[in-house]
Specification:
InterPro entries: Ig_E-set, OxRdtase_Mopterin-bd_sf. This protein is mainly β and 155 residues long. It has one helix at residues 30-35, and strands spanning 37-38, 47-48, 55-60, 66-67, 70-79, 84-91, 97-98, 100-101, 111-119, 122-132, 148-154. The protein has one helix and eleven strands. The termini are far apart.
Length: 155
């Protein structure tokens, strides 16, 4: 049997249950004190990893794809513990542009986003970042949920 906790990391969905104990505190053992913790931005004491961070990924075009010049629709998915309220896409060193984001709905599911853009011939780096209802934004780098980027070649 597996206990599944929606919108929390799989580390909180334990396999091979032999008993269930309800407690008002986090147990002290290897997985809760060293392995499934992270240092918050700016430093400080490690905190337990519980809620899924705000995240987004580009799905179309795929990384390394060769696409025709002209109008193209960039697509992807965004998710997190709190609802994603915005996704932005940047091409090369251009600024962040708001993508169209589908609403989350009553279930905690991935939210689709799209952004039409025109790509000139050559190599391009396309990046996306999401913001959740709590105001948390994907960090630029160095984290499990860092801004996602792909490279495409426009012919």
């Amino acid at each position: 049997m597996r206990a599944v906790v929606p919108r929390l990391f799989g580390t909180n969905s334990v396999k091979w249950l032999t008993r269930v104990v309800l407690a008002d505190h986090r147990p002290e053992h290897l997985f809760t004190t060293r392995l499934y913790t992270r240092v918050p931005p700016g430093g400080g004491a490690p905190q337990p990893v519980r809620e899924v961070d705000v995240n987004s990924r580009l799905l179309g075009p795929p990384d390394g794809a060769s696409v025709p010049a002209g109008p193209y629709q960039v697509t992807g998915r965004a998710w997190g513990f709190a609802a994603v309220v915005a996704v932005e896409v940047a091409v090369d060193d251009g600024g962040w542009r708001p993508a169209r984001l589908e609403p989350r709905g009553p279930q905690p599911v991935w939210q689709r986003f799209t952004l039409p853009c025109a790509l000139a011939p050559g190599r391009h780096l396309i990046r996306c970042r999401a913001t959740d209802a709590r105001g948390r934004v994907q960090p630029p780098s160095g984290a499990r949920n860092a801004v996602h980027g792909i490279e495409v070649v426009v012919r």
